[in-house]
Amino acid sequence: MTELIRNPRVMKKAQDHIRSKIGHKEQIEECDLLELDYLRDVVKEIFRLHPAAPVLLPHLSMEDVKIGEYNIPAKTRFFVNVWAIGRNPKSWDNPEEFCPERFMNSLIDFKGQDLELLPFGVGRRSCPAITFGAATVELALANLLYHFNWELPPGVRPEEFDLTEVFGITMHRKEHLVVVAKPYN
Ligand code: HEM
């Protein structure tokens, strides 16, 4: 929501997209998500810049392995910094920019095949709830954007946001985001 408030162009495009595809409905349901391709790109972009688990969970190498120029002995505990991978300029154009359109003509997804986008990890120990987790985020965001317009309280400017994030097993903003919800009919 912070990124959408900071990027009103994307907020409006996502809302127009959802509202035109869904028409009049009490609530957006899981079966509607298939149609919401721009929303999916927005969620991918959120996962790229703000992975919930920035260094995944700790892993242990089972045998000696060489990755690039690094020799990693067996039984080494290591962390995979997917936060940095998602912002690597070798993989992403203008990596710091919030731009869901980067996924429009791209096959990159977060299911584990594309190593530049790993919000759920990859391989045997990746998140077993990837489908449930992604659908939950998409469904919640779709309904919030469909039913409400969102504004900042008077006098608050997005340029003044403190975007500091708290690192840990899961990552979140240090400051709360305060927004005003205006029901949309
Ligand atoms: C958007 C929501 C979610 C995200 C982004 C997410 C992300 C992750 C990540 C990054 C890992 C570590 C993968 C690795 O180290 O390679 C993980 C592991 C795990 N997640 Fe999720 N997760 C989400 C939702 C959920 C939910 C809803 C559940 C349970 C209902 C769940 C259950 C688990 C479990 C049990 C593991 C450990 C798997 C293992 O060690 O083999 N996750 N998740």
Automatic annotation (TrEMBL):
Names of required cofactors: heme
One GO cellular component this record assigns the protein to is:
membrane
Q: Keywords in alphabetical order, please.
A: Heme, Iron, Metal-binding, Monooxygenase, Oxidoreductase
Q: Which InterPro entries match?
A: CYP450_71D, Cyt_P450, Cyt_P450_CS, Cyt_P450_E_grp-I, Cyt_P450_sf
Q: Which GO terms describe its molecular function?
A: heme binding; iron ion binding; oxidoreductase activity, acting on paired donors, with incorporation or reduction of molecular oxygen, NAD(P)H as one donor, and incorporation of one atom of oxygen
| Keyword Iron recorded | yes
Q: Could you name the domain of life of the organism this protein comes from? A: Eukaryota
Keyword Heme in record: yes
Question: What residues does heme bind to?
Answer: C127
Its family remark reads:
Belongs to the cytochrome P450 family.
The name on file for this protein is Cytochrome P450
Organism from which the protein derives: Amborella trichopoda
